[in-house]
Design a protein that fits this description.
alpha/beta, about 35% helix, five-stranded parallel β-sheet
Length: about 240
């Protein structure tokens, strides 16, 4: 339970990527006590979990939990199955269709875990770094999805039914471009060198610079007039 005078608690889904780090910084700037949650779902780019730990420490999270749930049991994605990660796709290619890096139901699963964590904490606020502008065609990054999950959260929980909590899903990046996200993060002091976005890193954890996620990230920094401090295998 939250004691009187304590800051409001928020569960922040923290993947270790650029967007989730910015989202955590926004939650902190709004006065929330951060309870970070990362999910080890069997992703091939597991270096992001190390990045999540770094980011959680840097933002002063009260707690950082890592929950394991193996979505490789279902596969169906280049991130959870033996399927090549697309590389060197053009902007036009990335803007059409749902790519093979989409992980079936991933954000639904993650938000459900965050909801369970929040209910045990007496927290009503969930933060997620989904983005519907510079996103790679993922259906679970749209405003409609966020609104639907928020409604579900208040129907599916003891706290919601009894009225002790009115859950809210915050998606502060949903309408922003990658460049706008980066600029906002810089304003809030986010160290993007701590983050990891690549879907296909080399064995040392260096980013490939060629997958959709790397290309979107690099373009965002370039358009912001900034240099990405993440480590890339191509230099």
């Amino acid at each position: 339970m939250v004691e009187a005078g304590e800051p409001k608690r928020a569960v922040v889904l923290l993947s270790g990527g650029l967007d989730s780090a910015t989202t955590a910084a926004i939650a902190r700037s709004e006065g929330f006590a951060i309870y970070a949650l990362s999910v080890d779902y069997g992703q091939r780019h597991r270096f992001e979990l190390e990045a999540a730990a770094r980011v959680a420490a840097s933002i002063g999270a009260v707690e950082h939990r890592v929950v394991a749930i193996d979505l490789r049991a279902f596969g169906g994605s280049a991130l959870t199955a033996d399927i090549d990660v697309p590389q060197d796709r053009s902007g036009d290619e990335m803007s059409h269709g749902i790519p093979i890096t989409y992980v079936p139901a991933r954000n639904t699963v993650m938000l459900s875990l965050a909801l369970g964590y929040a209910e045990t904490l007496g927290a009503a606020d969930l933060f997620v770094g989904v983005n519907a502008v510079d996103y790679s065609g993922y259906p679970d990054c749209r405003p409609e999805f966020v609104a639907a999950f928020e409604q579900l959260a208040n129907l599916a929980t003891k706290a919601g039914v009894e009225g002790t909590s009115q859950f809210r899903v915050h998606a502060p990046l949903i309408e922003l471009t990658k460049t706008e996200i980066i600029r906002r993060g810089v304003e809030l002091g986010v160290d993007y060198g701590l983050t990891h976005s690549c879907y296909n890193p080399d064995p040392s954890g260096a980013s490939c610079g060629r997958c959709d996620s790397c290309q979107i990230r690099l373009k965002g920094f370039a358009d912001a007039g900034l240099v990405d401090s993440a480590r890339y295998s191509n230099g």
